[in-house]
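User: Teach me something about this protein's shape.
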Amino acid sequence: MSGSHIRHVLSELEANLRKELGHLLALHQLSIDHQTLSLSILIDQMTAAKLCDEPLFLQLTQLDAAICQLDIGLYGLCADCEAEIEPNRLNENPLEQRCAQCAADYVHEHRHELRLSH
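Assistant: First, the predicted structure itself:
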């Protein structure tokens, strides 16, 4: 996948997440400029509004990380071992941060924390 194609996919995903964020903010009766603020500021605003437990918060932080990785030439590399993330994993989820092995290790190491959060 080319850098421009990845950037296009991430841009479309960002537009969709911003729409979802608009609905979430309306539901919580919050007025945050979700259309023009940068992702990092949106993430800060969501943190201040105590919306960190929302699944959308995690998606926005992953999107911000993916865009930053793309900008510095590290997109598609595992955050843990720095090996290339399998293309099928990135096709399924362009925000993926770990290769299959590191993702399995992460789930195994954090399963107690994951159980507590559900």
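Now, about its shape. The radius of gyration is 15 Å. The first helix runs from residue 3 to 27. If you'd like, I can walk through any region in more detail.
User: That's plenty for now, thanks!
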